[in-house]
Amino acid sequence: MTAIPFVDVALFNRKPTLRTIFHTLVHVSQFAIVGLERVIKGYFETLNESGLWMVVPYEEQAYQLDARNTRDPADVFSVEEEVRNGCARVAFLEAPPPATVNAPCGSDNEILAQWVAADSRRTITPDGASW
Question: Which of the 8 DSSP states describes residue 37?
Answer without folding.
Answer: H
